[in-house]
Amino acid sequence: MALLEVENLHTYYGKIHALKGISLSVEEGEIVTLIGGNGAGKTTTLNTICGIVRAAEGRVLLRDEDITLLPPHVIMSRGVVQSPEGRKIFQRLTVMENLEMGAYSRNDVHGIASDLEFVFETFPRLKERQKQLGGTLSGGEQQMLAIGRALMGHPRILLLDEPSMGLAPLLVRDIFRIVKYLNEQGTTILLVEQNALMALAVAHRGYVLQTGKIILSDEATTLRENEMVRAAYLGEHEGAASLRSENR
Amino acid sequence: MAQVTQTRRLGRITLDADRLSSQYFGWGALIATVRIFWVIALTSGLFGTPADDLYRTVSDALGSFLWAYAAVGLVALLATLYSRSRGEEPVSSTRLFINYLGVIFFLALSARVASVVQADPARYPITLWGLQLVNGLVLGGVYALVALGYTLVYGILFMINFAHGEVLVMGTFGGWFALTYVLNLGDGTFEVGAASVAAVLLPLLFAVLFLPLETLAARAGRKRTARAAEPDPTWVLTLFSLPVRFLVGALIGYGLLQALGGFAPHVYEAITTIVALLFVVAVGMIVSMLVAITVERIAYRPLRGAPRLTPLISAIGASFFLQQAMLNVFGPSKRAYSRPKLIDGTINVRIGDLGTIPVTKTGIIVVVVSLVLMVLLYTFVQRSKTGRAMRAVAEDKPTSALMGVDVNQVIVITFAIGALLAGAAGVMMGFHNQSFNFRAGFIPGLKAFTAAVLGGIGNIPGAMFGGFFLGLVEALGPTMLGINAEYKDVIAFSLLVLVLVFRPTGIFGEVLAEKKV
User: Fold this and answer.
1) Looking at residues B421-427, what average pLDDT do you find?
2) What ipTM score was computed for the predicted complex, to two decimals?
3) Which is it for strands B7-10 and A80-83: parallel, antiparallel or unpaired?
């Protein structure tokens, strides 16, 4: 029995068929990554799991319990916690208040305190800046806050949407190191990434998404060797192209 | 809108016309305001009676200075416009115009005040200004409370709840029915009815206070037993079951009240009256809250995903519906809000030996209660978990939902809080004006909306400031301009138009983020 099981998920935005039957599963203790190009439906998949977007068809199971049609705040309180794309820090709340928002659905004072301690141990920067407004943090700090805020919800499964987006390469490495560390500390993670190379390096398994469908799924190490994945996402061509544009 | 600014280099000095123009406006407004206060303070004898020619000379000098200031500004404005018209890139000059007009406005205002007040200083004693100041604060307290409702809802939903004025007057009605109930209990005497109301409510309060005793005692006991291995001393309390504790609490409350009635009848009457008044206010607040929650559920929530104009129209519809419903159910006639003796009458406030100002007790209550409620609200929004969630939802609804916040619930709480404040304002307004009818909420509602816009809608301290500011302008404005007090509505709404044209984000307003607009 998988921790999270997604069966044949279909989602529409108006008339646009965004997800065309996604099925995936995440086992306890795993890092599973969902890679794919722009508009493949990665974020939509996460948002459908979280209940922000309604599924038209299919089911989302958390330990065999159907959570598909529950409202987002209930899904969150069941332990499916998302750190959204673009970080979505509350700009006008302080760092501390942002973290407290992450623990909004919880009442166990001691659990919250120990999670806060864990977050501050993992991200000492946040502890230094706890009184600062969220909007005044740098991009990397905001990403740390977004992850920390999600951790405050004590996730059974953490959904990370593009944690490396818009960060400098050095910071990207930091973030992935943290993702791996969190997993070693026992957090199950579903990681959505455009940076397929890094994602496959930390993940156990991976799914490749293309225009709303899963076209490949395998062990992360196998995916890294796969010709198609290499061409499309790890893309020597693409990588070279982006390098060239950087030089210009 | 990209504001193109043009900077000109004159040797090593950089001239930024737009910034200079803002500073020009700021100083002009300041000097004009100083002149107004100078004239008022000295003619009314607040600083004794200085040599007549001294204050007149200073006042006239300030006036002449302002004229010169305006003339210099005009030359600078024309010069800048000329140079900009010759520039190759188009530069917007709207701001310059606006700032210049602002200075002219303040200049005219100060000239008018000076001429009116100096013409006949005897008609403007300090007591008049004091009285108007008090009136302004009372009006302002009501406006501020109601404005908070507009601003809270706008902050979260970006819609103007036009039914808020009706929510306010529903509170007045609720309070009126509670008041009538108390009066009927006492056969027309509030104090007698109040005694019976208090005889029920106070014991009930005590009973409720006694309910959590066991948990409190248990917690204290746990701490103690954790330290030393002694037997739990709270066993006596745990003997009492819930209904027993309730009864004991009620009996103690009742006993205390009766004892008070025997030993200190004056205190007894004051306390029972206060309890009954709180009861009246509470009923008004609850009625307002229920109305607001219903309106939200029926008229706004189904339109959550609709374009922004749709709930606005729905709000106007809800406003008309409530007004017509009240007209048909309660009739058009005015109803009297009779004051109990405790809050009736005035208190004379002496200002040195310049005279006394009669301040109504209800006026004092309005100002004090509104300030207390505002502090409570601010603390709630800033410190409590729900307040934090309100701020989070105001900023980003989907992300708040991801954090486990029930967004709809927070929206309902926001409406409820706004309505509670409006209900309190409605009942206090009833007691202060002593009569009302179904239309009594319309104008105050619009004024409070004006106040919210004035302070920067969506901004909580802004609404408080805007409320008091508008109240003061309304009370002092006609006196300053030497015109009939009937013009106060004209002044208030002119102010709304001016603010909307010249500073749409309000005095405290932040620049709205693009996503909000």
Assistant:
1) 96
2) 0.89
3) unpaired
